[in-house]
Amino acid sequence: MIKGENKGMRAYERLLKYVRIHTTSDEDSKETPSTQRQFDLARLLAAELESLGLESVRISESGYVYGMLPATEGHEDRPSIGFIAHMDTSPNASGEQVNPQVLDNYDGGDVPLSSDPEHPIILTVDRFPHLKRLAGQTLITTDGTTLLGADDKAGIAEIVTACETIIREQIPHGRVCVGFTPDEEVGRGADHFDVAAFGADFAYTMDGGEQGELEYENFNAAEATLTIQGVSVHPGTAKDIMVNALVVACELNGMLPSAETPAHTSDREGFHYLRKLEGSPEKATMAYSLRDHDASLLTARKKTIEHAAKILNERYGAQTVTVSISDRYRNMHDVIRNHPHLVENAKAAMVETGIEPIIVPMRGGTDGATLSYKGLPCPNLGTGGHAYHGVYEHITAEAMDACTNLIVALVKRYAGA
């Protein structure tokens, strides 16, 4: 468990430190970063990068952390490679007062997370069959009250640990650029990323699931916000007058294809995801995430939402339902396919380090999707974790070691070592 003499820290040890810093982002905030607490981790990371010997370490006004390992002598002409991860955690579950549990030599069985006998929360093999494969490893879980934050503090820990390894072992390398972003979980992580100043020719985001995941295609994404204005009167005199905004909201949701939701789709199948419904009979708001790998199908989903609103406005009165739709990110595949070396080198580095490549279409997005369209081709690599965004989130120390080794192997490959 404890780092060996002169061997530096293992990635999971850094993770345990990082997850205790509250960095949850806020989708309702208009500021960048969306929460000032993300600066707490940014400052810690900047200090850590400087202590390791990285150069040009800085924190931007928007909360982005940048650093760089200059190329070793004789390798200045090699490609500049970047590694990127995000500091914020999902607003879908609490990221405050995270208290991780560490199980040495995990037995592969069910793991009680919560100590509350009234409300037991158990990480079960029935729900997560892959747990059996983790037997014998060091399992890191939540205490059942918060998320863990391995998404994406595991990615940060692996990048920092890889940099430490490269420096300590004096591994020849081209320029290695490091970037840590805020607000990825609310779809704004790459908005203020300075690609030119970052200095990499291409990069990898460390922001995926289990070790071996290699993702170079992802959803096209849009967000739809609907405001429903009802007519609220006393229910005793409501006949032919009342328009209950909550009922209209339910009616609208019922007009969408019931089988095209996250719970019923997989692989490249898109969905509409009702992630927020709140209000009163007088006024209600709905928020949908719209996703599809095919851009034309995403456009169709937008039109379906707008058509449902049109029908309800014809039924209940103009402006009963108003719709606002904004695009979030695009499928990176159209960019990455022009840079096949990124995929081929990632697969080769995995094989070299004993990792089985898992090529999957991403059912989500990363900063890399937006960065790819900003001129920084950027596929995504797994960080070794599972069940992100909730109390069942977990990861193993050994998987994090493997992902750290993968980063080092990629640096070696691009240095020609």
Account of the 3D structure:
With 417 residues, the chain is α+β, with helices and mostly antiparallel strands. It has 10 helices and 18 strands. The protein has an 8-stranded mixed β-sheet, with helices on one face. Helix 1 crosses helix 3, helix 3 packs across helix 10 and helix 8 crosses helix 10. It is globular and about 80 Å long. The chain starts with 10 loop residues before the first helix and ends with a helix. The N terminus is likely disordered.
Question: Helix and strand layout, with pairings?
Answer:
Layout: H1 11-18, H2 38-52, E1 55-59, E2 65-69, E3 81-86, E4 101-103, E5 111-112, E6 122-123, E7 139-141, H3 150-168, E8 176-181, H4 195-198, E9 202-208, E10 213-215, E11 220-229, H5 245-254, E12 271-279, E13 283-292, H6 295-316, E14 321-329, H7 333-336, H8 340-352, E15 358-359, H9 367-373, E16 380-382, E17 385-386, E18 394-396, H10 397-415
Parallel strand pairs: 3-8, 3-9, 9-16, 10-15
Antiparallel strand pairs: 1-2, 2-8, 4-7, 5-6, 7-18, 10-16, 11-13, 11-14, 12-13, 17-18
Helix pairs in contact: 1-3, 3-10, 8-10
